[in-house]
Amino acid sequence: MRNKAFPHITTKSKNGPLDKIQATLMLSPAVLLLIICSIYPFIWMFRFILCNYNGFTSQFTGFQNIDRMCHDVDFWTSVGHTFEYAAYKLIFIIPLALCLAVLLNHKSKGTSFFRLVYFLPTVISSSISGMIFNFIFATSNGILNGIIRNPIPWLTSADYVMTAVTVLAVWGGFGNYMLYFLTGMNGISPDVYEAAKIDGATGFQTFIHVTLPMLSPVLKVVLLLAITSAFKDYEAIMVLSGGGPGNRSMVMFLYIYKLIFGEAYNVTQSQIGYGALLSCVSAIIVGCVTALYLKLSKKLDNII
């Protein structure tokens, strides 16, 4: 190793093997947890794809699960609902988080309080959030219907349930993305804004030509997180609407959950084998969407 102060002097690291041992010891707990909690369950689940497994007995059925999946209208409908739900969530949550981040980026009185208030929903569990909004959107004694004095069947009508689910998703997640945007804006040098102000740029022009371009790396990460989380959401939906009415708010991971725990089709017996197959297919769908987004974002970088 060459000394920067005296280039003609070189030193050797005496703790090379010891450093490797320390690094291995520090990484081993995380690697062990990854194997136990992620890799092993995936392998365990994968072996039951071609079986009729109910949690107690396993019977090899060949390609019956695959054939059932190809003709399972409810599953593919839930996939379509997942794409619809993800689109609604992204359309509202990203602009809202970005706008609030811009408004709260200025150091003025009260901004810290509002940052805390907007971030609080992200630390509330999905089950609690679903219960809270169940009280809000209830048809007869709901808080929202009590305010507007015009009862709307938010959770019992196929025309309104997706709106209620989207509101819950946006409320529970925008504070987290707002924090990412605020962190990215804090990394932008004030000299850049000062130069734009000297050039006579308005606030809107500064946002379009200065803030957004310099925030693009953070924006890409936030979009990636928002896309993956939107496709994996199901806990709050399960508590809020249970996938109803008429499976209108049934997303694919909620459908799989009900299959594995024996709630789909009013069947009490678990269908773990078929649920394992649908889980793998759903993971492939999410992976393809993520890969497509990464490819498109890379192309946009080359164009810009």
Write out the strand line-up for the largest beta sheet, numbering strands in chain order. 1-2
- Measure the end-to-end span: 41 Å
- DSSP summary, beta strand count: 2
Sheet/helix structural class? mainly alpha
Order of helices and strands: HEEHHHHHHHHHHH
Helix run count? 12
Low-confidence stretches: none
Mean pLDDT: 85
* Strand composition percent: under 5%
Shape: globular
The main sheet comes to: 2 strands, antiparallel
Fraction of residues in helices? 55-70%
Output the radius of gyration: 25 Å
Tell me what the structure shows.
The chain has helices spanning 16-46, 64-70, 73-104, 111-119, 126-137, 143-148, 161-186, 190-198, 203-232, 235-240, 252-260, 272-303, and strands at residues 51-53, 58-60. It is built from 12 helices and 2 strands; from the N terminus they run αββααααααααααα. The protein is globular, with a radius of gyration of 25 Å. β1 and β2 form a beta hairpin. The model has no long low-confidence stretch (mean pLDDT 85). It is mainly alpha-helical and 304 residues long. The longest helix has 32 residues, at 73-104. It starts with 15 loop residues before the first helix and ends with a helix. It has a two-stranded antiparallel sheet with strand order 1-2.
